[in-house]
Write a structure and sequence with these properties.
Helices cover 5% and strands 16% of the residues. It is globular. It has one domain.
């Protein structure tokens, strides 16, 4: 009870997206040569002795390290905008945007700014997109649907509390 430990893992892009030239074409991405694809890596499992089904598990995130850039990648049949009928222009080909981060008052990017364009920026609000417990069945990866075990939720409430 109350044990603190560190988890280290890649972001969902597994370090692939470094510039706008890095398109989300599945054939070019590590792990997409498998069925189902090995994407959106997670760390674990972490065994908690004495925890049983139905117990409440409380997780406190003490720190999230934020990289110097972030990205968004879309393409045909990829993600919610990849199948858009309203905005056909963004679902017709693969495109990637990489955003620079500038440090905040802490001197790190944890409280820094994301620069979307030269005129548009906003405060970085780091969060953990995938957090869950062991499912009752085998799942190939965190994108393999969600269930009562949680999984890939991209919920901004899975974040560290800023002091």
């Amino acid at each position: 009870m109350g044990e603190i430990f560190e988890i280290e893992t890649w972001d969902a892009g597994i370090g692939f997206f470094k510039s706008s030239a890095d398109k989300a074409i599945p054939a070019n991405r590590h792990g997409f040569d498998r069925t189902p694809p090995l994407v959106n890596l997670i760390a674990g499992p972490i065994f908690i002795e004495g925890l049983d089904r139905g117990d409440t598990l409380v997780v406190k995130i003490h720190q999230i390290e934020v990289e110097k850039t972030s990205w968004i990648a879309v393409g045909p049949n990829r993600g919610s905008l990849g199948e858009s009928s309203r905005w056909n222009e963004i679902s017709g080909e693969y495109s990637t945007m990489v955003f620079d981060h500038s440090p905040g008052s802490s001197g790190t990017t944890i409280d820094g700014t994301l620069h979307f364009t030269e005129k548009i920026s906003w405060p970085i609000t780091p969060f953990v997109g995938t957090l869950g417990v062991a499912p009752d069945r085998d799942v190939a990866n965190s994108l393999d649907r969600q269930g009562n075990w949680c999984g890939n939720r991209d919920i901004r409430d899975f974040k560290m509390e800023m002091q």
